[in-house]
Design goal:
single chain, 193 residues, mainly beta, lipopolysaccharide transport protein A fold, 11-stranded antiparallel sheet, 1 helix
Amino acid sequence: MNKKLYIQFILFFLIILILFIFYFKYLKNNNESILPKLEEDNKQVQNLIEDLKYFSRDIKGNEYTIEAKSGDNDENNSDIIHLKDVTAKIKFDQKEEIIVTSDKAIYNNNLFDTEFFGNVIVVYDNQKLLCEKMKTVFSKNVAFISGNIIYKSQFSNLYADLIEIDLEKRTSKISMYDLNKKVKITHKKNGIN
């Protein structure tokens, strides 16, 4: 594998890994250092909430915002919220921003575990990752990105079915569902295939 391509690939996944560690460290274990705030436009019809927004900031100024056009509480678990037309933004040091969008998400407002699904797009700088599903399980220190993964950068594309990220060990495993198939990486010359 080309050394430059390998370094770009590792850097991208380190950024995603840092994002997950940030949430686990500051949102789950350090409740004193977080200022959670729930903002809702009071357009509630029965159990439906429209234009909702969850916001938190740690003591270093890093911010996490998850917004949805609508959402409703799970009938069986009040900690679970089903969201539609979702955008999540993670802002580090008031400069760098990672944006996750999806058609739907399931958000646990107690554990901060979030499952994005339906046209999931993760954007950071000039890099974009498309997949069917992204699940962060901060309560177990693990994250999964799955289903027709397409990673695009200025110099390469990667195609896979599953990325498993261990948030404590900071390791990731990229694989295909069919063991006979291989992860595919294509390199672009001068940014063009």
